[in-house]
């Protein structure tokens, strides 16, 4: 439960600046950075739309993970996002060179949460128990 909550809050700290248009660390405009990466490195069409999806996944999805709501599907989407980031940044492993250690660990944690679920203190568990009582 604590791992899921901390993981979700950490994601929120990356999504919220994109959604609010505020700076994040050394990035004055993290949304523009995401659009640039998607457009010029991944060469995907509709980069602003993809970047908005990433921002919502990290912002709202991170909050949902912290609360344990829709835990498995959100964690699976985050796993895919982090694997994509590893692909873009890889194969560099050195921290100093914007290596993939952090997104690799995030992918592993997200996959772990997707496979294990939110745990007994997750809203998912509470909702499931409430629905079971109604039947």
UniProtKB/TrEMBL annotation:
Keyword Transmembrane helix tagged: yes
Coiled-coil region(s): none
A Pfam family this chain is assigned to: DoxX
Major localisation: membrane
Keywords annotated in UniProt: Cell membrane, Membrane, Transmembrane, Transmembrane helix
Subcellular location: Cell membrane
Record flagged with keyword Transmembrane: yes
Membrane topology: Multi-pass membrane protein
Transmembrane intervals: 47-67, 74-96, 102-127
Family: Belongs to the DoxX family.
Name of the protein: DoxX family protein
Organism expressing this protein natively: Coralloluteibacterium thermophilum
């Amino acid at each position: 439960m604590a791992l899921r909550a901390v993981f979700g809050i950490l994601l929120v700290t990356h999504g919220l600046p994109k959604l609010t248009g505020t700076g994040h660390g050394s990035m004055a405009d993290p949304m523009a950075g995401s659009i640039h990466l998607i457009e010029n490195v991944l060469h995907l069409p509709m980069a602003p739309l993809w970047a908005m999806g990433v921002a919502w996944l990290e912002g709202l999805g991170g909050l949902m993970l912290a609360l344990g709501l829709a835990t498995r599907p959100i964690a699976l989407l985050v796993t895919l996002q982090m694997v994509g980031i590893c692909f873009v940044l890889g194969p560099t492993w050195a921290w100093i060179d914007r290596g993939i250690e952090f997104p690799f660990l995030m992918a592993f944690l997200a996959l772990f949460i997707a496979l294990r679920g939110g745990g007994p203190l997750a809203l998912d568990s509470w909702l499931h128990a409430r629905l079971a009582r109604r039947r």
